[in-house]
Amino acid sequence: MSAAVSTENNSSITNGASEINIEFQNNEKLINEEYKIWKKTSPLLYDLLYSYSCEAPALSVNWLNEFSIEKNDNNENFIEAKFLMGTHSKEDQNYIKLISVLVPPTLSNKYKSDFEATQIPKNLLRSRQLNIIREWNHPGEVNKLRINQFNNLVATHTNNGDILLFDINDENCKTHKSTLKFHTKQGFGLEWNSNESKKNLLLSSSEDCKIALWDINYNEKLLSENKPINIISSHENIVNDLSWNKSIDSVFASVSDDSSYQIHDLRLASGPIIHITDAHHDPDSENNLSFPINAVEFNESVTTLFATGGSDNSIQIWDLRNPSIPLRRLLGHNDPVIGLKFHENYLLSSSIDNRVLIWDLNRLEEGEPDKRKSDYIDPCLSFMHGGHTGKIYEADWHPNLENLIVSCAEDGLLEVWRPAHLGDEYIEEEEEAEKDE
Question: What are residue 136's DSSP bridge partners?
Fold first, then answer.
């Protein structure tokens, strides 16, 4: 190679690196500017907002069902809720942490009528609202954690494929009770069956393209090792996420990098009962590319309804009664959607674009926005949480407290928040209807 050619190649590499560096710096400036704007407007957007910087980022968060009503020194009521988080550190010791958060009593519909005053307790504003109650050592990063709400048994997905089981009721134990060995690569798909009669059933999936079904018989003592009772190998690529049907306890959905979603029924041994390929693609695109599907979630109350989130930046709403065509595409994220969570008629979505969005499914019939317009906004989009400056790892609704959400992200921030005015339009409509009557 001549010196001239070598110099030209080196110059090209240097220019390319310089352009990448400039693009990165501009992107960082944009993120910081957007965060500053959000911070200025946040007092108007939230009824509640706690933000904490963690020593190590959390990859996974999961609320516990129960909460308690407490009184402070001034005899004012407040609520103590709890959630679990798993840390993501490549150098230091990793943990599962049980964290309590103090929130105003007005978040509980069940107890709201019992309170004489609805003001936020004064001491609550001056105190530290998040406190670490307990922590358990975890070998390696906590890719995903899920709590069994019936017995407080916690399952975690590790970065080597093992599934670990923790008993958070055992106050003397500081590490896991049992190891489930099957997966040969790390994964993120993990979910307990939500039906009490099937509470022992746990699903897991990983980058080895397999789904494992476990039967965890818990009676104070866990076996040191368990074997899966069923192995499903119907996907051709990484299986990213799983979701049990909330009403039919033998049915679950799975999604994969192979661009398909599948519906499985454990009562049948003939493979998936529904297998839709190319489920995420842009119908307006000329090349009609298919994208990996990263998240799936069944609706809690509508048996046939579920949602998928893909690397095409969209969310698809599906109905099992017509499984080949989505009911609706939700458009609002600028990067791949990696997490979904239903709560009543709302859907929470998290993305690599640093945003958590809340969608109102009551507005599905209003139709998709026109993407040809630069200022298009999906009519289903109800709220955007912009409190993070890194990609969202996970967000979770509290199952019992009204519109209370926890989110964690790559920026190391852990945030507990409640959007202001979410659902107020329906309250106003009901009040107007009552006046008319």
Answer: 96
